[in-house]
Design brief:
The chain is of the alpha+beta class. It has four helices and four strands. Helices cover about 40% and strands about 25% of the residues. The chain has a four-stranded mixed beta sheet, with helices on both faces. It is globular, with a radius of gyration of 13 Å. The chain starts with a helix and ends in a 9-residue tail after the last helix. About 20% of the residues are buried. The model has no long low-confidence stretch (mean pLDDT about 90). One of its GO terms (molecular function) is endonuclease activity. Pfam families: DUF559 (PF04480). This is Endonuclease domain-containing protein.
């Protein structure tokens, strides 16, 4: 995921890894664009994990962030889909359109 996000750097994207936001730590965050990318492992598939994610996402959204969530398998098996989804949400903040 990190290498995908770094590909957007020449266009002005400034994602950071493991960024504290309130009581939470975002996997990847571009603070000025208010965009968060989360990559979820198996722990997010339990009732407790889903409940935690709902509270966390509600807090982050209340702070003006857009939260994009992907499963580990999506990042590994469908990287084009993941990249295009992130690009679509990031595009209003990029210096120029990607081709």
């Amino acid at each position: 995921m990190w290498s995908m996000l770094r590909d957007l750097r020449p266009y002005g994207a400034r994602f950071r890894r493991e960024t504290p936001i309130g009581p939470y730590i975002a996997d990847f965050a571009w603070l000025s664009a208010r965009l968060i990318v989360e990559v979820d492992g198996d722990s997010h598939e339990s009732d407790i994990g889903r409940s935690h994610d709902l509270r966390r996402d509600a807090f982050l959204k209340s702070q003006g962030f857009t939260v994009l969530r992907f499963e580990n398998a999506q990042v590994l098996e469908r990287p084009d889909f993941v990249f295009l989804t992130v690009e679509r949400h990031a595009s209003p903040f990029l210096k120029r359109e990607l081709k």
